Amino acid sequence: MIAIDVQNIVKKFGDFTAVKGITFGVEAGEIFGLLGPNGAGKSTLIRMLVTLLPPTSGTALVNGFDVVQQADGVRHSIGVIPQAMTSDLELSVEENLIIFAKLYGVPRDKRKQLIDQLLEAVELTQWRDKQVRNLSGGMRRRVEIARGLVHEPRIFFLDEPTTGLDPVSRVHVWEMLQRLKAERDLTILITTHYLDEADKLCDRIAIVAHGDLKALDSPMKLKASVPSKNTLEATFSATPDGWERTLAALPDVGEVTSHDHVFRLASANGPVTTMALMETAARAGVAVNSLAVQSTTLDDVFVHYTGRALRDSLQEPSAKDSPFMIRRA
Amino acid sequence: MHRTLAIIEREMRRFRRSPMLIVMAMIMPIVQLVVLGYAFGGNVKHLKVAVVDQDHAVPAVRVRELVGAAASGNRTFDIIDYTDPGRALDDLRNGRVNGVLTIPPDFSRRVLGRNQPRVALIEDNTDSFVSASMAAAMGSLMGAFNQPRPTTVRMSGQVALDVVEVYPYVPYVQYLLPGSIVMSIFMMVMIGGGIIFIDDKARGLHEGYLVTPITKFELIAGFNISGTIRAVLAGAVIMVIGSLIAGVPNPLDPMRMLRMLSVISVTAFALISMMFLLMVRVNDPLMPRAMFGVLNTLLYFPSGAVYPQQGFPKWMQVIAAVDPFTYAVHAFKSLLLKNTGFGAIGFDLMYLTIFSVVALTAATMLFRRTL
Q: What is the homologous superfamily of the domain B43-143 according to CATH?
């Protein structure tokens, strides 16, 4: 069953097209990731799906409701964690949840039980009376996750949920989301620019760059879709002229790049290329200083589909970023 | 409606936990009331007047005695006697004295000969308040000098003006109090409905509201009702504290306080509606901060809070005519200084209500439920 159905959706801000006709579907019960750098159009896309921005053209159905024509139906069906930390710092953890339960119209008799369960699920029961300003970044994020689920939504949208958190808190949030998804039969759509987050958390990933959808599949299949399965990184003591061509001629090597005396070889068969490289270096009298063999990563996938590494794209500003927007990054 | 109540609950809980906001909204009107009230309210005293008596005859001595009586009586003047007119003028130019009263050598002869006797007041007119006060005081002294001696005529044919004051004497600090109450309401509206509203928007807090099923009208009602409640609290506190500071007679009269509260409520709603209209499309947190001083000056001073509007130029009277402060100040003056009933402030309440409806309708039309 399709939980989110997006057809050829476009968003323009004046002359700038932030989202250029993207089409995809999210199956009920999966964790779906939108992966891309800042300014790729992920947040604009998610804002259209949660009714914060009207699309310029195209359609999107969320839980069967049209985001423009049936916006109220969408709002009742979804929980949203915006990119900015939006909990009230002056209010306690429990008060934040109560206010949002009231905004969503959760009946009074169900409210307390639901909040108790959620605080237990996000492990904040003992902090329920503390003002949010006294909590750490990771705990505040958990307050927001609980707040987004206070009306028992079917679909949960999280815009860069772990940006700004320390590695331990990030892993904690991932585990929490996986547990909540299983317990509550949720469909989750997250945006992220963390490759490891997309890799470990998401059932399927859509790679977005410059407002376009570049690729969409499970992390495993995306990696398999890249011609080279392994990457060899090697440094040598001194290399003769034409050494890059020599390396390119090794068995199963697709592409060779060098930067700062580090040679990077994309190989379809890591072990065979490694053996051949060692033999060729020995014959040529070139000492191998270091050699590392890596499996294909999502970064390789990202380079393959967008032509550049994700880390090189992270600093691109979004056209909609306000200079006063308080970001967590 | 329950969603509107949720927004009001949220705003009031935040308000309760932000003591600095409450203090900031109260401090400025109270400081202004006390400082302006006592700085502008008193009569000018202890003006240094150099007296150069070049005549020394009986009429000149009588002038000298009248000036001396004013100096020792209401302390308007401090007299310094000079024999050298040149030195007196030097001291005037150097700021050591505020004016020089010269009694010329032929003064007594002219008085006795009824030949247009004159004394000269040379004054430092760089401070118009001081020079006007000094000229007025000297003028009345000359009036006293010119009074005819006791006469045997039993019935005078001269017309006399008897001034009857309807209300007890109103010191300037009391005159200023209505403006201070409006100012406290405005401060709370400006901080809560302007600065914090836009800060919340920039922090993304409004996104949290917009993804819930709340309607546009529930959201606007929540913002405006909570803003009005906060402003009413500020106005009510300044009403009580200000009345005590300014020495308003019977400051805790329950009926007057009830009438005052109704004007405070209508004023608060008018100002929060105006602020919502001004801020409805603003996203930049610097904007309300930049507007604060301009709005304060533009609304407060033309309202008649510190100076009667009859003295304004035409263009400023136009501003005053549309300024909601004008009607609020007028209503508070009627209730505080004259202790009137609703009959005297009906038009003020009507104007403020119509102003609120127009501003809120325009703001609602401009409000977007999306980003």
A: abc type-2 transporter like domain (3.40.1710.10)
